[in-house]
Design goal:
This protein has two helices and seven strands, in the order βββαβαβββ. The chain is an alpha/beta fold. The strands form two sheets. Strands 3-6-4-5 form a four-stranded mixed sheet, covered by helices on one side. Helix 1 packs across helix 2. It holds the Pfam family Ribonuc_L-PSP. It comes from Amycolatopsis magusensis.
Length: 137
C-alpha cells in the first residue's frame, strides 16, 4: 500500500499539511479521539499546551498499539475549545514540534469548538492511519 500526499495547484499552499491524501486499499486504523487524560482518567493540569503534550503521548501510545506511527497517519482533526486564533496557532505549532509532527503532513483540520467531553478538556485529536505503506510525497 502507498500514501500519496498532494496539493492541487488551484488551491492555496497549506502551512505544512497537504490538501489531499490518497491511499491504496489496505488496513486502516481509526483511533478514538485522543484526549488529555492521564492513565487514571483525570484531565491533566497545566493548561492548553500541557494538554497538547498529553494528547501527543496518548496518540503515540494508541498508534504504537496498532503497529503504526506518525508516518502512517493519513488524516487528523484537531479540536480546541477556544475562539482564539492565537491559541489555535499555538496548538498547531506545539503539535508540529512534537514527536507526532509527521502525522500533520497529511490531510489535517484544526478547528475551534465550544466544548469538549471531559471536565476542563481543551484539546482532542482524531487520527486515521494506514498500515503497510510505502510512503510517497
Amino acid at each position: 500500500m502507498s500514501i500519496l500526499r498532494t496539493n492541487p495547484p488551484a488551491l492555496h499552499v497549506p502551512p505544512g499539511y497537504h490538501h489531499v491524501t490518497v491511499t491504496e486499499p489496505g488496513k486502516l486504523v481509526f483511533l478514538a479521539g485522543q484526549c488529555p487524560l492521564a492513565a487514571d482518567g483525570s484531565t491533566v493540569e497545566g493548561g492548553l499546551l500541557a494538554q497538547v503534550d498529553q494528547v501527543v503521548a496518548n496518540t503515540l501510545t494508541a498508534l504504537e498499539s496498532a503497529g503504526a506511527g506518525p508516518a502512517d497517519v493519513v488524516r487528523t482533526v484537531i479540536y480546541v475549545a477556544t475562539t482564539s486564533a492565537g491559541e489555535l496557532s499555538a496548538v498547531w505549532d506545539r503539535l508540529n514540534a512534537s514527536a507526532l509532527a509527521e502525522a500533520f503532513t497529511s490531510a489535517s483540520t484544526l478547528t475551534g469548538v465550544t466544548v469538549l467531553g471531559y471536565p476542563d478538556q481543551l484539546v482532542e485529536l482524531d487520527v486515521t492511519a494506514a498500515l503497510g505503506t510505502a510512503r510517497e510525497r
